[in-house]
Every structure is written in structure tokens, then in C-alpha cells.
Amino acid sequence: MKRDFLAVTDFSKDEIYETFRIARQLKADVKNGKPHHYFANQTMSMVFAKPSLRTRVSFETGMVQFGGHALYLGPNDISIGKRESVKDIARVISRYNDWIMARLFDHEHMIEFAKYASVPVINGLTDYNHPCQIMADMLTIQEHRGTVEGQKVVFIGDGNNVCNSFLNFAAVVPYHFVLAAPEGYDPDPVTLERAKAAGLSTIEVVRDPIEAARNADVLYTDVWTSMGQEEERQKRLNDFKGFQINRELLSFAKSDALVMHCLPAHYGEEITEEVLDGPHSVVFDEAENRMHAQKAVMVMLANSSGAGINV
């Protein structure tokens, strides 16, 4: 049976922790120059409707480290659902490749991709969620804090796809999640209610970023204007005034609080350069961990189909 990774909720709590363990080991292997060619001669198609630095480089490099090869298919190579149907693209690529990673706008296209592909599909981002990013984020918190459970993670900004993934994580692993967002920028309501209904995590949505930041273990932000929202840029700049992670806001968090950002950063908007480059920042640990977390997800998916990879 093939298995996909479209949302954090595709993994159980135990599977998430096993993914983190594998990621730490794979990371150590890379640092120690130890080869781990678990997917030698395998290939991955990377389907990009949205461009990305971290997603492309992390998956492509990860496949090379696994002994395989990744092919980049950009927006001009495949017009998802326009030049050719999603289901036909999925069925064709499955005949050529062992893996599919897709970075798309429409989450329904991701679901359709997984339905018709006969090889594992990994969600590299949709407008709804960003599960690989959250796996990297929580791996980073675990590295620096020893655990993610009980940590107060405060997301300052838009209730976007990254925020939805934090909520999905809260439905599986207990922690304290707070979103500080202006009116009109709340996360997906179904995802929010599902996370609350799981009864595992403390979940809050507030309007005051200072109230949210008090005693935070982690302050997290993302751009205020994502790809596809460019026409809303000026309105968003006005609506998010006061929601910047800066030295003043950081002063309300714990003295050893971590600062995180999924990048790219717009300095002077959602975060100041001083804070992102400061001693609290683990932003580039987080960026590096995208590759290790994603590789671990691949091992988990392969083992679910009986690959028997021992890491």
C-alpha cells in the first residue's frame, strides 16, 4: 500500500516522534559524512505551481543524499488543471517516478493528485496548509527545548497555511498554540474547531500581540502577503500594523524565547532584521531542518509500504 503525506494529521503522535528521531539521525549522518542511500536509483518529480527556494533545494538535495534524483517541473512545464487534468498528470508521472512532491495553490488539486498517483505524494505546500514546514518547525523546537509538548508557541500574523498546519499539529500532539491576528485574518474555521475538539492542546485566537507574546516559549511569524495575494498588499500592510516581531514585542516573551520564521522574510514588515539576526533567532536551524524532516517523512512513507529501512 502506498501512503501520502498531505497534512500533519496523516501521522499519529507516535509516528511524528519517530519521524523526528529519524530526522535527527539523518541530520547526524550528513554532518558526519555517513552515506544513507536508502533510495538509490529512485526518482522524484517535483511539481511547482508556486516557486520556492527552500522547498526545491531541500527536496532536490535530499534525494541526492538518498542516492536518488529529483526533477524540477516548474509552472511553465506543467499548468496544473489547465493544459492537462490533474488526474492525468498524476497517472503519467507515476509511470516514470517513484515519488511525487507537489507545491500547489489549490489544496483540492493536491488531494486529487494523491488519489490518482500510484506512488507516494508529499505536500510541499498549498494555500490551505504546509505540513513539511511544521514538521521542520517542531523538530527545531524539540532540538532546542527537548520537547514540543507544553511549549507556548505564539504565531503573530495571518491565519494562513502555516497557521493551519500548526492547528493540525495541535490536534495530534499537545502544546499551547496562540494566534495573534487582526479581525478578518483568522485561520480556516473547520481546522480551528477540529483542533479544539481534539482536546489535546490549549488553543487561543487573540487580537492583541502583546497579550499573546507574554511568557511565550516561541514567537513565530510569516509574511503578511503570500503569493497570489499581491493585490491585497497595501491593505494588509495597514491591517497588520502593530503585529511585527521586534525587540519590544520580544521583551514580553520568556527571556530565552525562540524566534522563528518560515522565510522568505520581509524585513521591516512582519519582523525586524535586528530580531531575525539576533541571539533568539533559530530561523536558519529551522530552514536547514526542512531537508532533514522531509527526508524522514519519506522514510516513514516507505516503511509504511514495507520498505524495512532501519535508520
Polypeptide structure, described:
By secondary structure, the chain is of the alpha/beta class. The longest helix is centred in the last third of the chain and has 22 residues. The protein is globular and about 55 Å long. It has 12 helices and 9 strands. The chain starts with 12 loop residues before the first helix and ends in a 7-residue tail after the last helix. The model has no long low-confidence stretch (mean pLDDT about 95). The protein folds into 2 domains: about 140 residues, Aspartate/ornithine carbamoyltransferase (Rossmann fold, 3-Layer(aba) Sandwich); about 150 residues, Aspartate/ornithine carbamoyltransferase (Rossmann fold). It has a 5-stranded parallel β-sheet. Strands 2-1-3-4 form a 4-stranded parallel β-sheet, sandwiched between helices. Helices cover about 40% and strands about 15% of the residues.
Short description:
With 311 residues, this protein is an alpha/beta fold. The chain contains 12 helices and 9 strands.
Strand content: 5-15%
Distance between the termini: 21 Å
Mean pLDDT: 96
- Within CATH, the superfamily of the largest domain carries the name Aspartate/ornithine carbamoyltransferase
How many structural domains in the coordinates?
2
Gyration radius (Cα, Å) is 19 Å
SSE pattern = HEHEHEHEHEHEHEHEHHEHH
Layout of strands and helices, then pairs:
Elements: H1 13-31, E1 43-48, H2 54-65, E2 69-73, H3 86-96, E3 99-103, H4 107-116, E4 121-125, H5 131-145, E5 152-156, H6 161-170, E6 176-180, H7 189-198, E7 202-206, H8 209-213, E8 218-221, H9 233-239, H10 247-250, E9 258-261, H11 273-276, H12 283-304
Parallel strand pairs: 1-2, 1-3, 3-4, 5-6, 5-8, 6-7, 8-9
